[in-house]
Amino acid sequence: MFKYLSLIIISVAILSCTNLDDRHVFNYKITGTAEKVSSMKVVMGPGIDYDSEGEINLPVDIEHDVYGDNLNYLLEISHLDVNADVKLEVFIDDELIEEKSQFTTIDAVNTISIEGVFSKD
Asked: Does pTM surpass 0.85?
């Protein structure tokens, strides 16, 4: 009985291990001379989906390990002042994917947004 229980526990432990080849480090940075932004939305793969729904003090530096492939990413801020000095940067596995500092006005809301799908290929 003990042998079978041990075998089952070992099998479950081995099968539940995450493949470290699919590990990616997402790092989002918001910098600039502005003291805060009006709101922030963050998506990092399937693990993080956050909407501040309020002001966020700057600077911001968020890092998270994400596992898998074809991973969604989004970093979006809004600010009342279209001329505010704010820069967004998205790094994945220490590689700069994209950076933006130009606001776009959509429905009277000034936003900067970086989004996409990350695939290691």
From this structure: no
Answer whether 24's CB lies under 8 Å from 67's CB: yes
Question: Over the stretch 76-94, which tens digit does the pLDDT of each residue have?
Answer: 999 999 999 999 999 999 9
Q: Band of the pLDDT at 22, cuts 50, 70, 90?
A: confident
Rounded to whole angstroms, how far apart are CA atoms 97 and 79?
23
Long-range Cβ pairs for the range 79-83 (8 Å, 24+): 79/34, 79/37, 79/38, 79/103, 79/110, 79/112, 80/38, 80/110, 81/34, 81/110, 82/110
DSSP assignment of 14-63, as one string? HHT---GGGEEEEEEEEESS-SEESEEEEEETTTEEEE--S-EESPEEEE
State yes or no: pLDDT of 9 exceeds 60.
Answer: no
Question: What is the rounded CA–CA span in Å between residue 76 and residue 103?
Answer: 11
